[in-house]
Task: structure prediction
Amino acid sequence: MIIEQPSKWLRWLYPSAIWRMDPSEKAVYLTFDDGPIPQSTPWLIETLDRYGVKATFFMVGDNVRKYPELFQLIMDHGHQVGNHTFNHLGGFTVSSGHFLRNANEADKLIHSHLFRPPRGWMKNAQYLRLRQHYTIIMWDLVTRDYSKRLNADDVFENVKRYARPGSIITFHDSLKSIDKLHTALPRSIEWLLEQGYEFKVFDDNMKHSRSMK
Result:
């Protein structure tokens, strides 16, 4: 459970980040990390359209550079976008200056007030700087669709077990996940609709100044 639904001590590391939305409202927030890529993004958009669902895509800047038409596809279909660094950098693996410059490079292409750190980790100095310029979005439920140890049924069961009002649900727009999502994503959306959940994206009123100088 420490992975699928982060414990309180993990949330305390980044207290200004958003881990869960309003728990009194029966709504969930679908998010997709790591894209866009040709092997998964078009199918994800088609599937979300089929159910009339909007989501937030936390995108890698270098993928946006390589596939600008997919970035535009996401925007044209009314989905929200967020910054996931330019090279999918883990904050603990590089200097804070390098990490911040990489995020800024992605912002030149993505132009979003939302940021999610790859793997959900940052050094404290990185977090303190980024929170001045972005709304940092974490998650309340990570489906682990990327895991080689899980199949599509397991991913769907994680959604059923851990989704709750206000959940920010994380899937991945990636090669590691797409085969499982062909089954797990439609089943998850259908189940959430059956349970009476509304699907939402993050309000623009959460916007921060994004000037990083």
Observations:
- The first strand starts at residue 27 and ends at 33.
- The chain has one domain: 8-206.
